[in-house]
Amino acid sequence: RWKFKHKVIANSTPYAFDGKIYFVSDGFNLYALDRENGTEIRRKKLPLSFGRIPVFKDGAVYFWSRMQTLMGIRLKDERGLLNVTVPNPPTAPPAIDSGNLYFWDTNAMLNVVLQGQNAAKRIHLDISAVRSSPLVSHGKAIYTNQMTNRISVLDLNNEELILELKLTSPLEDGSLRVHDGVIYFSTYDGNLNAYR
To answer: Which residues contact 89 (CB under 8 A, 6 or more apart)?
Structure first.
């Protein structure tokens, strides 16, 4: 058991990888600690934008810089993986699936950055208030629109909506999950819902 006295950035979760624990401090430093004893191995200052949450996935950290640029750094050697500037600010951290990144911007455009590319493809959808990261699974983006109280499923291959669920009760924040092709979520009326 050990302690490392440093504040982790709000809403971020430490990440275990390759025998180390990684986290981003509220001072925007990326720390690598020895998982066994908590000893600091290294630290790197990130050009992180205030209020943006870093995302760890597949041995990398992804974050928004101050200039509306989505950046990715490989944790093992701190090599840059991604540097994509977008015209509109993001509304939430990116979702990551099969090496591709997905995020909403303030114009309700779904931005897609394909693995190995430094440009974002933008998909316009007729929606007004998407504030959370999309869930992406098996070539589909699942997202909620709090204004219309709907859950939508977008086929990313042909950019068509394939399912829209009108909810009778508002969705509980953060409850939307996907597992084995089934969408699970809870609503304010106390129900747990599942749709295939």
So the answer is: 68, 105, 106
